Amino acid sequence: MTTAPSPAGRHRLAPPLWATLALVSVLSGLGGAAHASAAPSGPDSAVTAPGEASSFIEARDGYERAHAFYRAGEYAQAQAELDGAIRSLNYVLTHAGDASVRRAAGDLHRRVGSLRLACTRSLEKEKQLLITVGPPLPPEIEPERDAAAADAGDPADPQPEAVELDIAAMVPEIEPAKNTRVQKWVDFYTGRGRGTFEKWLKRSGLYMDWMKEILRSEGLPTDLVHLVFVESGFNPNAHSRSHAVGPWQFIRGTAKLFGLKIDRWIDERKDPERATYAAARYLKHLYSLFDSWPLALAGYNAGEGTVVRAISRQGTNDFWQLNLPKQTREYVPQFLACLSIAREPARYGFDTVEREAPLAFDTVQLPGPVDLRSIAEACGASLETLRLLNPALLRHAAPNGPGGLVTLRVPVGTGGRLMSDLESGSLSLPEVRTPADPPYVRHRVGRGESLATIARRYGVSQAELARANGLSNRARPKRGQVLRVPTGEGLATALYSTPRPAAKAAVPGEPRVSAGKPSGVPVYGGTKTVRVRPGDTLGALAERYGTDVKTLRALNDLRPRQHIRAGAKIKVPVDGSDG
């Protein structure tokens, strides 16, 4: 995945009246005959297929209504309006003969998609909030489906979830394709690439069943799990040249949009569970835009905007005819080839490959932060085992999650003993600190970089980046110019210095709250220059100065694989409390 969807919160109402009238006049001239044929002629006139002009107008009006619903907090109603607008715009994109009309429809399609994504995120936040703090309905009235409660999104009432699952159930299975572009990759994976595919297949055993269950719970075809073959080969620690990370290869901006946490201590893009939930929601969103799995997968790889622009240019929604970026043209055939092999492993000679056993673990919740080495020792396991179960944890400690708690996976059979020892007092864990990220890092502008490309790289909006540097949104930074990039996570993690309360066994469905209180948040005071000592690495420097390797690379404009030499000078962040 290389391109993030449009961030939420940048939705504009329809263009000025004069521009709208001009566009409608163009549309009416092109689609007038169809529009006239759709004029009401009786009670059954609603079933008459609309023309390009009326479809565009319906989509524009639906977008305006959805925007009003969104601002009023009526996210479900907004989403329903947007789904209707998308259907109308997809009709215009594939039926309008004039390229300017398709471009206008494509522009509106992107705004509609952006607003729909914002609605989806808002609905998810509402659901999570209600599940966390909302009281369950009494058992005797649970079967009742009160309309007012359903509209309010009450999680105890089954209606909201049932509606979502019913919609998801309409998503069709993925149809295999047999053509020369797919066969090329089948030949590769069964020929020169056989060794690589066997390695992926073995490693998939660790996560595949787990991921399939998540996709099924989200109402999506479980065959989508084979996308992970193409993305990362089921490697949670995979990194790409475009800064995508994890089994589902999220870039930072997309990850943030779908609720994944990224800082110096944790990168949830690497977590097989959290990343799969995020990927499922993104794929569901993409399918809602295109009503086609090949196009949705192309959007996952290149971004939905790229796909919409290609459709508007060519007037077709047939993936196999679209002129997309080369990587995307190969991406979908790669996936379909992996799918064909996975469905018939014996036919291709992979039925004898032994897959690794699925991960087995217990899940515990502890007041945090916690030291991973102490947890590993208490469980009688190695630190490497603990990291395998918790690949999102980047360093020696796990920071606080919601409610001041840390959720950890520990080797199967050890969770109960660990919690019992902590509750009885026979085991105590050392105090650790997980300082928050600085509120900004510095980035030296490289050749060809713009505010937009830099913002996407760091997962912030172009407006935020411009504002942090006193620039207009359309400013063009010069090569070599140093920009302040806000991280947006400077206040995310508090420092805990009070004694920790005794851990309690987790009760399913019951939120747990830590008694620890924040003692303060470090203040970022800029950078200082230090000299690299013999034997120093970026990792060692990051540990010494309380930062991470990514921040050091950004501060010093270092390429991903570039090393440092003894005697060189390097910038490191400092806390404001250091003076």
Provide a descriptive summary of the structure in words.
This protein is mainly alpha-helical and 579 residues long. The protein has four domains: 136 residues; 164 residues, Lysozyme (Orthogonal Bundle); 103 residues, no CATH class; 112 residues, Membrane-bound Lytic Murein Transglycosylase D, Chain A. Helices cover 46% and strands 7% of the residues. The chain is built from 22 helices and eight strands. The strands form four sheets. A two-stranded antiparallel sheet has the order 1-4. Helix 2 packs antiparallel against helix 3, helix 3 packs antiparallel against helix 4 and helix 4 runs antiparallel to helix 14. About 20% of the residues have low confidence.
